[in-house]
Design brief:
Order of helices and strands: EEEHEHEHEHEHEHEHHEHH
Number of helices: 10
Largest sheet: 8 strands, parallel
CATH superfamily: NADP-dependent oxidoreductase domain
Bound molecules: NADPH dihydro-nicotinamide-adenine-dinucleotide phosphate
Strand order of the largest sheet: 3-4-5-6-7-8-9-10
Shape: globular
Number of strands: 10
CATH class: Alpha Beta
Radius of gyration: 18 Å
Length: about 280
């Protein structure tokens, strides 16, 4: 019997499951196997990107699973070379072809690349795709508040979601309050990495107390804070473990204790400099 993941509503009307499968850095064949295993156990959100070179594997896994296309929320992202209005449309079409689908649930600008200076044009392209019904939701990844301010000012269109590096070491006080103010959903990439997080006494003590694994404690922390999380695993056992978190609740004190592991931004990639 597949498990059910709760969903939350996005600004432009779509519903997104609060937990999904990350697919980087799996190759196409491994991705197909993992996506099928995830869909069979109840996952309904899959995260991929042009840059991962595994979108075809996501499509293969979806078809192999027998789960219907409309039941699955597919996110993909495009690179800097598509940062223009027409480019966003082309990136969308190429991703659809590789995935073997005719629409995308959520399309993201992977990195702002401010040095390239074109992310607002890419955002106009995404807004047009949303208007045309080609995508159900649009968003950004690795955007700082200043980047978000710029695209909102230029278009009046607020992203549904911003996908950022967030875990107990990186609680992202620099971004989360801005997202909350603008009703942008926060999505966590590398939610479990580095894996030293899973050996932190705060986490292992909670795992003992709740009879859960450390990864389950971290993923429950993210989802109880209102975030969407996308742990990657290529192990069927851990894929199942990571989705089995919706039958217990951490207390407010537990949530605060986990947030106390924050390292004040250390290791968060600077998206004014890093990007592709
Ligand atoms: P994760 O934090 O999801 O960690 C993945 C690692 O944790 C793998 O080594 C995995 O090993 C291990 N793991 C998974 N589940 C468990 C568990 N229950 N117990 C112990 N270990 C576990 O890191 P990622 O960097 O992969 O991030 C997740 C996803 O975020 C990516 O796959 C990608 O989709 C997205 N991403 C987005 C970025 C962006 O710029 N927007 C950047 C980086 C990632 P194993 O497979 O053996 O289980």
């Amino acid at each position: 019997m597949p498990l059910t993941v709760p969903t939350i509503g996005l600004l432009h009307g779509a519903q997104i499951p609060v937990l999904g499968l990350g697919t980087a850095p799996m190759n196409g064949a491994d991705t197909a196997v993992a996506v099928r295993a995830a869909l069979e156990v109840g996952y309904r959100l899959i995260d991929t990107a042009e840059a991962y070179h595994n979108e075809a594997g996501v499509g293969q896994g979806l078809r192999d699973s027998g789960v219907k296309r409309h039941e699955v929320f597919i996110t993909t992202k495009f690179d800097r070379k598509w940062h223009s209005v027409d480019g966003a449309r082309q990136a969308f079409e190429y991703s659809c072809r590789r995935l073997g689908v005719d629409y995308i649930d959520l399309l993201l600008i992977h990195w702002p690349n401010p040095g390239h200076g074109q992310y607002a044009e890419a955002w106009k392209g995404l807004a047009r795709l949303l208007d045309q019904g080609a995508v159900r939701a649009i968003g950004t990844s690795n955007f700082k508040p200043a980047h978000l301010d710029r695209i909102i000012e230029e278009t009046g269109v607020v992203p549904d979601l911003n996908q950022i590096n967030l875990n107990p070491y990186k609680t992202r006080g620099d971004s989360v309050p801005y997202h909350v103010d603008h009703k942008i959903i926060t999505q966590c990439w590398s939610p479990l990495s580095p894996t030293e997080i899973l050996a932190e006494p705060v986490i292992t003590e909670l795992a003992d107390r709740y009879r859960r694994t450390p990864a389950q404690i971290v993923l429950r922390w993210q989802t109880q804070l209102g975030y969407v999380t996308i742990p990657k695993s290529s192990s069927p056992q851990r894929i199942r473990e990571n989705i089995s978190i919706f039958d217990f609740d951490l207390t407010a004190a537990d949530l605060a204790a986990i947030s106390g592991l924050d390292q004040d931004g250390v290791g968060v990639p600077d998206s004014d400099v890093v990007g592709h």
